[in-house]
Design goal:
- 52% of the residues lie in helices and 13% in strands.
- The protein is an alpha/beta fold.
- α8 runs antiparallel to α9 (210-230), α8 packs parallel to α12 (257-266) and α14 packs across α15 (303-313).
- The termini are far apart.
């Protein structure tokens, strides 16, 4: 049995807490919302984020970040990349010993193009970083809380750390974890796929069909390959759970908040209206900006990424941009 701290009692953080609780581990969830924390501790529910089922009795919650730091050697980060620096800056004030950090968010910083592992290295003193693992892959919290079979990856530059987290989360009924070693590629894929999910939602919003979506997914893999290799990742990662697996689940499912955002954008809402109408963070919008400029830096051809950026930030009409994509010069696949 392990002790595990989770920062962020959102849908995914709560779903992970349930897995760990089901696996017999002690969990301390951190959230800034006092009502959420009180509900978890008193009723073992988080109805706003886990509409069905209950959290195990071995899952508790707190608003005290110092308690989270003291509770466990394993700290899971389950917050949007937008607030990650703020969270890490708060942690620097209370950390007294090295921790194994496990990230579950999927995004890049627009201004820096940094991956989460790089942000962690930049903010935290190295003496407090025992290791880093990205827990990522095709997974919707809505299905995990229903205990539907899910397979993801524990990815780290340190194989021992990846294996530790693999065994921590895996069970024999509904959650299976593989290990991976390409941290760069996995972090990039998990972030970039959100941009393509927005694009896929746009196709839905325009009333297009399966043919268009299949074409989008296929060409998205081509772009992902260019980006991952240029930024130091491995091509093989593109074809695994953290690559094509995550891409498929987020571009084809109505559970995906980025997919839903794409639908709204295609229906005429701008980015601010779209974000305001949703209860969860749309990581793909920020990632679209980051990866668009990263592609310019590396001189990469990324027409789908460019299209999403133009729609969100240059206010181009969705139908017009799709037409421009269809009228690009003909070429070999």
């Amino acid at each position: 049995m392990e002790k595990v701290s989770i920062i962020g009692a959102g849908s995914w953080g709560s779903a992970l807490a349930r897995i760990l609780g089901d696996n017999g581990h002690q969990v301390l969830l951190y959230d800034t919302d006092e009502k959420t924390v009180e509900e978890i501790n008193q009723y073992h529910t988080n109805v706003a984020k886990l509409p069905i089922g209950m959290l195990p009795l071995n899952v508790q919650a707190t608003t005290d970040v110092k308690k989270v730091a003291e509770f466990a050697e394993i700290i899971i980060l389950s917050v949007p990349t937008k607030v990650l620096r703020t969270v890490l800056n708060e942690l620097t004030k209370v950390l007294t010993s090295p921790k194994l950090f496990v990230n579950t968010s999927k995004g890049l910083e627009p201004d820096t193009f940094l991956r989460v592992s790089e942000i962690l290295d930049e903010v935290l003193d190295k003496k407090y970083i025992k290791g880093f693992v990205a827990l990522t892959g095709p997974s919707h919290a809505e299905e995990v809380i229903r205990q539907l079979p899910t397979m993801i990856c524990s990815v780290s530059n340190c194989h021992q750390d990846a294996v530790k987290i693999q065994y921590l989360f895996s069970n024999k009924t509904y959650f299976r974890v593989y290990t991976g070693h390409d941290l760069i590629g996995s972090e990039l894929c998990s972030a970039i796929k959100n941009v393509y999910a927005i694009a896929s939602g746009m196709l839905e919003g325009l009333g297009y069909g399966d043919n268009a979506r299949a074409g989008l997914i296929s060409r998205a893999l081509v772009e992902m390959k260019r980006i991952v290799i240029a930024m130091g990742g491995k091509e093989e990662t593109i074809y695994g759970l953290t690559g094509v697996g995550d891409l498929i689940v987020t571009t084809t499912s109505h559970h995906s908040r980025n997919y839903q955002a794409g639908v709204k954008l295609a229906q005429g809402k701008d980015l601010n209206e779209t974000i305001a109408s949703m209860s969860m963070v749309v990581e793909g919008a920020r990632t679209a900006e980051a990866i668009y400029f990263a592609a310019r830096k590396y001189k990469l051809e990324t027409p789908i990424i460019d299209a999403v950026y133009q729609i969100i930030y240059e206010k181009k009409a969705v139908a017009k941009v799709v037409k421009e994509l269809m009228n690009r010069a003909l070429k070999d696949e």
